[in-house]
Design brief:
Length: 205
């Protein structure tokens, strides 16, 4: 699977000149953990996360201070451009989902913008990856069968899926076809592994 197979294509972005409060409201309203920050020329310039908008925005409660002690008051950052994270961990649409997952874990990020050049065309979140893993076996099997029908017609393959592992029984023993079937099945969201066998071998076992 590639980033383009699972990414959200309608991306909510924010301008670097927008107030931090606006970004916080957008995150809260949409339930996002981060927003790509895009300049007027559609160029990705940063990403603003929940942690970014929270940092340094809350004053200390003066009721906890000893009477007469001077208040330590500072002016919090006003704009998204002041609090955003930059540079951004961004990847192209053709990125393998394995590389996306690895980057999220190694960079400790919850979402990765998908870009063509510097233009945002999508976004992939940890929730997207979890959603793929949680996909129903019956839906996975239906998608695999659909791809195999397009490739080789009806009734040649028997497809079963158990816990995301696809078992394909082929009427013929053709190494080239086994390779193609494996590639097609592995590209289906939710597939964790593919196991091929021929009908003859299955019957002989």
């Amino acid at each position: 699977m590639r980033a383009k197979d699972i990414m959200t294509r309608t991306v909510v972005t924010v301008d670097p000149a927008a107030p931090v409060k606006v970004a916080a409201a957008m995150l809260a309203a949409h339930g996002f953990s981060a927003l790509p920050v895009v300049a007027e020329d559609d160029r990705l310039v940063g990403i603003v996360t929940e942690a970014d908008v929270v940092r340094d925005q809350f004053p200390f409660d003066p009721r906890g201070l000893v009477f007469g002690q001077p208040l330590q008051v500072g002016t919090p950052p006003d704009t998204v451009g002041e609090v955003m994270t930059t540079p951004v961990c961004a990847m192209p649409p053709g990125t393998d989902i394995v590389d996306l997952a690895r980057a999220m874990l190694e960079e400790h990020v919850r979402s990765i913008p998908i870009v063509e050049g510097s233009r945002v065309v999508g976004i992939v979140t940890r929730r997207d990856l979890v959603r793929v893993l949680a996909r129903d076996d019956a839906a996975i099997a239906a998608d695999v069968r659909h791809r195999l029908v397009i490739y080789g017609g009806f009734d040649r393959w028997t497809v079963r899926v158990d816990n995301g592992v696809v078992s394909v029984e082929d009427e013929f023993d053709d190494p080239a076809d086994r390779h193609v079937v494996t590639v097609l099945a592995l590209a289906v969201p939710g597939v964790r592994d593919v196991r091929m066998r021929t009908a003859e071998l299955q019957g002989a076992g």
